[in-house]
């Protein structure tokens, strides 16, 4: 008896489901072509009245939000491998010990406004922190993680970490 009652209750569907709307309410009966269907606003908030709880300004703001994303291609269609994010290679440089270095933000913007000491500070480079290093390592392939040797490399002093005993290459001179 109890099983029959539960099966009957399961088969009963609610008459109004808030997330699904009746197509007859949204689409007028005189509309028949697909091009006019695209122009109709099928937002779930079209049936709300002015006295509703949802503020129109909040809806407008939420529609214009831009969420930043990491554009990592997990699998390429041709080879099936991960792809390098080209923006990372353009903006950052990987040192031999695994750290990433970048220029300061706004380096070329409104230079006429900035004082000479500020221009000098903007020409300097900044190290990325550990979290950013891990993220950037995920965004590039193995090719960019290998050490690259250039003639007259300006980053040559930064490729080794002499301040830590584990990564030190030269013996420490104690006085």
Helix content: 25-40%
Overall radius of gyration: 30 Å
How many H/I helices?
Answer: 8
Number of strands: 3
H-E order: HHHHHEEHEHH
Q: Report the end-to-end length measured between terminal Cα atoms.
A: 93 Å
Give a description of the structure.
The chain is mostly helical and 175 residues long. Helix content is 32%, strand content 6%. It contains 8 helices and 3 strands; from the N terminus they run H-H-H-H-H-E-E-H-E-H-H. It has a 3-stranded antiparallel β-sheet with strand order 1-2-3. A hairpin with a 5-residue loop joins strand 1 and strand 2. It starts with a helix and ends in a 30-residue tail after the last helix.
Quick summary:
The protein contains eight helices and three strands; from the N terminus they run αααααββαβαα.
Describe the SSE topology.
Layout: H1 2-11, H2 23-26, H3 34-39, H4 56-63, H5 86-91, E1 92-94, E2 100-103, H6 116-123, E3 125-127, H7 130-139, H8 142-145
Antiparallel strand pairs: 1-2, 2-3
Key phrases:
mainly alpha, 6% strand, extended
